[in-house]
Amino acid sequence: MSTLEATGDTDWLAAHRDKIRSRAAIEGWVRIRGLPITDRAQAAAVIRTLTAGPLDEREGFAPRENHGAGVHSSSEWPPDQPMCMHNELSYRAEVPRQLVLACVTPPVSGGITALADTRAVLAGLPADLVRRSTATGWRLLRSYTGVVGISWQDAFGTTDREAAQAYCAEHGITTTWDADGTLRTVQQRPAVVRHPVTGEDCWFNQLAFLNEWTMDPDVREFLVAQFGSDGLPFTTAYGDGTPLDRDTVDTINEVYEKHTVREPWQRGDVLVLDNILTAHSREPYRGAREILVGMSDPVRL
Q1: 10-27 and 40-50 helices cross at what angle (nearest 10)?
Q2: What pLDDT band is residue 129 in, cutting at 50, 70 and 90?
Q3: DSSP H or E stretch at residue 248
Q4: Mean of pLDDT over the chain
Q5: What is the pLDDT of residues 78-94, one digit of tens each?
Q6: Is the pLDDT of residue 1 over 70?
Q7: What is the pLDDT of residue 287?
Q8: What share of the chain is helix, strand, coil (3-state, %, to 5)?
Q9: Which UniProt keywords apply (predicted)?
Q10: Which of 259-276 are b and which e, b meaning 16 or more Cβ less than 10 Å from the residue's Cβ?
């Protein structure tokens, strides 16, 4: 991972913008240290300096606070629960190729945004798993119960059922509405993709993170009791619909761990990620933690 020591403010950043973005698109990520970021406005300005073609979030799993023009808070996920390795919004038809994260307030402890090279992860996975995932892709199954996660209204940015239906049809998402108004969706995406700049194959998905076997066992048990095994708020499967077993999910997460790099946040840190070359996670933490995020450079894979 490249770490650049900033020698100025946003003017310095603007002068080095193209170099930083190009390096991230080849190496996977670049960390910038020493920028004078003390509040949200400065963090948002840094993010906007580094991004091109901001992408607003749709189909999210957790609330975010919008700071305008493609800048959001990090996902509101319980501090004591990890967010496992994933590629941001990899279940969408259009994905952000670049993420920029800016640290306003580092946590007292923990809260690391850990990183993993998806090229190395792909090379480290069992060959039969890679072959099957390449051939079939992966599926994301969601039930918008209104109890866990965000509502379909928040996920699709509308209160109009027909507008949500139209969005899903446009983006290759099949829909079913239960009698009680619960929306169930299924979408199928590639699990291995070719990077548009380097031409390398990358393990690009959220197959393990959003699978039921990655959940805390007590949480999974509660959700199955509440909604049934076919009504979980979310889970994943192979692209042909075959469920994953616990051993397969554990194997994927173990390979991620073998290739994980960790660096604690410092105030003013900025992390520029290529979202296809790099998976990321968020570890549990204590104390206040404020990281702003910008998603940009949308691409259809």
Answers
A1: 50
A2: very high
A3: helix 246-258
A4: 94
A5: 899 899 999 999 999 99
A6: no
A7: 94
A8: 30, 30, 40
A9: Antibiotic biosynthesis, Iron, Oxidoreductase
A10: bbeeeebeebbbbbbbbb
CATH pick for 2-118+262-300 out of 3.90.180.10, 3.40.50.720, 3.30.420.340, 3.60.130.10: 3.60.130.10
Residue 68 has pLDDT above 90, yes or no: no
Which residues have C-beta within 8 Å of that of residue 123, sequence separation ≥ 6?
A: none
Residue type, 241: G
| Encoded tokens for 231 | 């009504």
Distance, in Å, from the CA atom of 81 to the CA atom of 120, rounded to the nearest integer, reads: 26
pLDDT band for 148, please (50, 70, 90 cuts).
Answer: confident
Please write the tens of the pLDDT for every residue from 204-220: 999 999 999 999 899 89
Instruction: Write phi, then psi, for 110 (nearest 5 degrees).
Output: 70, -155
* Burial of 9 from C-beta contacts in 10 A (0-12 / 13-18 / 19+): middle
Q: Is 27 exposed, middle or buried (0-12, 13-18, 19+ CB in 10 A)?
A: middle
Do the two domains 2-118+262-300 and 119-256 of this chain adopt the same fold? yes
pLDDT for res 56? 82
H/E stretch holding 235: strand 234-238
Query: What SS3 state is found at 147?
Result: coil
Q: Which CATH number fits domain 119-256: 3.90.980.10, 3.40.50.2000, 3.60.130.10, 3.30.2170.10?
A: 3.60.130.10
The model's confidence at residue 4, banded by pLDDT at 50, 70 and 90, is: confident
For the chain, report the end-to-end CA distance as a whole number of angstroms.
25
